[in-house]
Write a structure and sequence with these properties.
Elements (H helix, E strand, L loop, with lengths): L2 H12 L5 E6 L6 H14 L4 E5 L7 H7 L13 H12 L5 E7 L4 E9 L5 E6 L18 E5 L3 H14 L4 H22 L5 E3 L2
Parallel strand pairs: 1-5, 1-6, 2-5, 6-7
Antiparallel strand pairs: 3-4
Helix pairs in contact: 1-2, 5-6
Amino acid sequence: MDVAELARSLIERAGRAERVMIAVAGPPGSGKSTLAAELHKAFLVQGHTAVVVPMDGYHFDDIVLNARGHRARKGAYYTFDATGFAHLLRRIKSREADIAIPVFDRTMELSRAAADVIDGMTRFIIVEGLYLLLKREPWNTLKPLFDVSIYLDVPKPELERRLTQRILSHGHDEAYARNWIASNDMLNADEVIANSAPADITLRP
């Protein structure tokens, strides 16, 4: 299924709903951000309003992670403000007007507060992130907020290849990439793969 076809099917599924919450979940390197961006574009092309809400905006700052001894595991499920993120999604679902959202800036490795705004008229809300379907508390409060959930199921060798290319593109060497992937990214991938609730739609490469 290509993205335009997926968008059409989601529009049909939405019926006359004025607000539709869509989860795009999957392990690191599965293509969540790419799919979310492509879906956003496809909705706009087909005449609908849409916005992407990234879970990464709710990363704890490095100051907090250092204080808690979690800096080396940045990206693990316990390095996010899951409760705050759930509160944001409830506000969005209720169609509250002009909701400011934080966006994670990878060039600075920190979240920029109020970096985007969602108005009450935007129809399709595309939420993307690792732990949207996680069964651990308090992450397990998120799934009921979504009208439809999508999970990207990518084999581990392909995840490792993509993650390596991503890290190398940021200027790190292969030794750093191997260490970070083994000690962090793949641990997070294992968590997502083992402990995510079933999605409405599963996409495979």
